[in-house]
Amino acid sequence: MAELPEAARRFVAEARRLGIEIEPVVYPDGTKTAAQAAEAVGCPVSAIVKSIVFTTSQDEAVLVLVPGDLRVDEHRLAGIVGSPVRRAGLEDVRDATGYAAGGTPPFAHTRDLPVYADEALRRHTEVWAAAGTPTTVFPIALDRLVAAAGASWADVSERS
User: Fold this and answer.
1) Short-list 24, 28, 19, 31, CA closest to 9
2) In this predicted model, what pLDDT tens digit does every residue of 144-155 receive, in sequence order?
3) pLDDT digits (tens, 9 = 90+) for 52-103
4) In 3-state terms, the chain is what percent helix, strand and coil (to 5)?
5) Which residues are within 8 A (CB) of 104 and not within 5 positions of it... i.e. 6 or more apart?
6) Contact at 8 Å (CB) between 77 and 85?
7) What distance lies between CA 22 and its chain's CA centroid?
8) In the 3-class helix/strand/coil scheme, how is 79-119 assigned residue by residue?
9) Structurally, what CATH architecture does the domain formed by 6-154 represent?
10) What's CA 146's distance to the chain center, in Å?
């Protein structure tokens, strides 16, 4: 574990505290986008979980877990949370989760956040997510991820 970046080591420790053993994979060239992550691990882009932080009009953070091949529909999300939302800025993401944008894991954050998992994630039983940095990802069973994140299922992605 010493070869992992500090944020990934912290995430692994927090996951372990939650009773979840994960084994992050390091990709030095980065997995900053869902397409890069999918190519690196050899899975469909839809099996990559993007952890995206939004801020409500009351400046409360909300985390959305969405498949790598879809985007969050901010109007749908606003209807669910009962407030207009906007994508959180870099400092807001770090403040809300303890991790940088682009490497935000789906759980084990420094603050408790409402979490919504998009229904389209159900296309896969195993998914990959960021492990605290833009160069680390990990596989996890979808049901285990949703339970660990305390996520509520919601239809929040854009549809074409």
Assistant:
1) 24
2) 999 999 999 999
3) 999 999 999 999 999 999 999 999 999 999 999 999 999 999 999 999 999 9
4) 30, 25, 40
5) 51, 52, 53, 63, 93, 97, 130, 132
6) yes
7) 15
8) HHHCCCEEECCHHHHHHHHCCCCCCCCCCCCCCCCCEEEEH
9) Alpha-Beta Complex (3.90)
10) 11
Burial 110-137 (b: 16+ CB within 10 A, else e): eeebbbbbbebbeebeebbbbbbbbbbb
* Domain ranges for the chain: 6-154
* C-beta of residue 84 within 8 angstroms of C-beta of residue 55: no
Measured CA distances, 22 to 28, 59, 122 (Å)? 19, 32, 21
Distance CA 13, CA 45 (A): 27
For the record, the structure tokens of 9 come out as: 């080591």
Structure-token pair, residue 109:
């954050």
The CA distance from 80 to 42, in Å, is 33
pTM to 2 decimal places: 0.95
Per DSSP, 155 falls in state -
